[in-house]
Write a structure and sequence with these properties.
By secondary structure, the protein is mainly α. It is built from four helices and three strands; from the N terminus they run αβββααα. A three-stranded mixed sheet has the order 1-3-2, covered by helices on one side. The longest helix has 25 residues.
């Protein structure tokens, strides 16, 4: 891997983590641990002790999709399921979030 590419990847990783922190502040979530790593079967995970992990494949996607995954995961600190309350909160923060979800699924197949 070239040094230039490595610097670019690190810059994107930093930008992503800053975006997570932005949304965490906005949603009043205190993050204890924030990781970006390879994940096989999901885009992100969170634990009850405020640990967040995000799939490093997200770094190749645009910021709108970052926001979808970030907000999706952060809202699970308040609502553990994908029921009506969770959907209402998603809509309040991201508007027509279903379109983003559809794009993410489509991009994941590429």
């Amino acid at each position: 891997m070239s040094a230039t590419r490595s610097v670019a990847q690190q810059s994107t990783r930093t930008a992503f983590k800053n975006r997570v922190r932005h949304w965490a502040d906005k949603l009043d979530v205190k993050i204890v641990w924030l990781g970006v790593r390879p994940m096989r079967n999901k885009w992100a995970s969170c634990s009850t002790n405020c640990h967040l992990n995000f799939n490093d494949d997200l770094l190749d996607l645009d910021e709108a999709l970052w926001d979808y995954v970030i907000v999706h995961e952060l809202l699970h600190f308040f609502v553990p399921n994908h029921g009506k309350l969770w959907k209402s909160l998603m809509r309040a923060h991201l508007g027509e979030w279903e379109k983003l979800e559809t794009r993410l699924i489509k991009d994941a197949r590429k």
